[in-house]
Amino acid sequence: MTIILHITRREEWEKAKLAGFYRGDTLDSEGFIHCSTPTQVIKVANFRFRSQGDLVLLCIDSQKVEPEIRYEGVEDLFPHVYGALNVDAVLGVVEFVCGEDGFFELPRHGVDLV
What we know:
single chain, alpha+beta, ADP-ribosylation fold, three-stranded antiparallel sheet, 8 strands, DUF952, DUF952 domain-containing protein
């Protein structure tokens, strides 16, 4: 099993659970949902989401993802989901809170999923 991770707002995840799928804002604008590997997620979080709150980390089983996944990028191969993510591929949702300095660390709770 390969785990990929996606950072999203709690409100967006709650909507996705009701709908049965998660689209993510980039799917509409760029054609895919950005995901990260466990080794990439902290770098992404601190670059894109520094000091932001109300975030969760979706822990996704890539083998259960129904749409196509492509690993893309120049230096790092980032997983991108091309299509709406089926919520049953999400193994767990972990609270993703930055520290007082505004930087993120991999959450201690739920680390066994990643």
